[in-house]
Automatic annotation (TrEMBL):
CDD domains: M56_BlaR1_MecR1_like. Keywords: Membrane, Transmembrane, Transmembrane helix. PANTHER family: POSSIBLE SENSOR-TRANSDUCER PROTEIN BLAR, SLR0241 PROTEIN. This is Peptidase M56 domain-containing protein. It holds the Pfam family Peptidase_M56.
Length: 317
């Protein structure tokens, strides 16, 4: 079981670093979530015992069995939710059909593969109830399109496929799954869930930048995002990444029209050292406790003799 204090501290440090360095960079958030995910493994590292100054107070840890039980219950609940999401995604995938008889889509898809330098071909499937394009599939990269995509023009298809393929090129779906597992391990930590939501939004910023790097006009791409944004109240499977949602649309459009400079390597390196250093220190350093008897707990010779010669059954004559 990870320490709640260490978990909250690491997540807080990561959020502060992300805020200072720029919220549109996913690497800092990913470093923090990766630290949280691997934090339970730090408990198996050798411990370093530090000798505290004489008279320094030492906190004695009480039995934490009740906390362990609560943690395991929460772990089971959120683990069950993840399994339900996997089952829901499987049913959702079965409801889709492979792309067929769509030469324009296939042509634009081949061009997008070439422009992104992808050697592995990505499957495209059509889903009737889908409202916005999504990327999914950890082992089999797939792009899901709504039926209306068959009537889109080449420019819209190009923007959509470049964005969704960008998620697969960047391994964003793997990052999303790792973030979900970090939230599962640290289900009690609200900052971990905030970090996960921020990571997903930052992945969208990064994919937008990749699309613009291929030569797509920023204004026309922003219009495409607005047209294809997921309607309010609509949902996609938890393990898929939609092209655009109403919650992040405004920030993404502002970033497209007025992009900011990426942060330097210094805050990234500093965050790596700070989070890993803090996690290692709190997981391995322990106070050296000397077990001694205080003078008040000892007995004099007279008291010892009195106890040894006392009648064990004082009620009997």
């Amino acid at each position: 079981m990870p320490s709640p204090f260490v978990s909250l501290l690491i997540a807080a440090l990561g959020l502060i670093a992300v805020q200072l360095a720029g919220r549109r960079t996913p690497l800092l958030t990913a470093i923090t979530l990766a630290t949280l995910l691997t934090l339970p493994l730090f408990a198996y590292l050798p411990k370093i015992h530090l000798q505290l100054p004489t008279g320094a107070p030492v906190a004695i840890e009480a039995s934490a069995s009740v906390y362990v039980r609560i943690y395991l219950v929460g772990l089971a609940v959120f683990g069950g939710k993840l399994l339900l999401d996997l089952a829901a995604f499987t049913r959702w995938k079965i409801a889709s059909v492979p792309l067929a008889n769509a030469p324009l889509v296939e042509e634009v898809l081949a061009t997008a593969h070439e422009r992104l330098g992808m050697s592995k071909k990505t499957q495209v499937r059509i889903h009737r109830t889908l409202k916005s394009p999504v990327a999914a599939g950890l082992f089999k990269p797939t792009v899901y399109l709504p039926e209306s995509a068959l009537t889109w023009d080449a420019n819209t298809l190009q923007a959509v496929l470049l964005h969704e393929l960008g998620h697969h090129v960047r391994r964003d779906l793997w990052a999303s799954m790792a973030a979900r597992l970090a939230c599962l391990v640290h289900w009690f930590n609200p900052l971990a869930w905030i970090l996960r939501r921020r990571l997903l939004t930052q992945c969208e910023f990064a994919c937008d930048a990749r699309v613009l790097a291929t030569g797509i006009d920023a204004r026309s791409y922003a219009h495409t995002l607005c047209d294809l944004a997921l309607p309010k109240g609509s949902r996609t499977p938890a393990l898929a990444m939609a092209m655009a949602t109403k919650s992040s649309l405004r920030d993404r459009v502002e970033n497209l029209l007025s992009p900011r400079r990426p942060p330097s390597i210094f805050p990234i390196f500093a965050t790596l050292l700070l989070t890993l250093g803090t996690a290692l220190a709190l997981s391995t350093l322990r106070p050296a406790i000397e077990r001694t008897f205080s003078p008040s707990s000892t007995y004099s010779t007279e008291e010892v003799e009195l106890r040894l010669t006392a009648n064990p059954f004082p009620g009997n004559p």
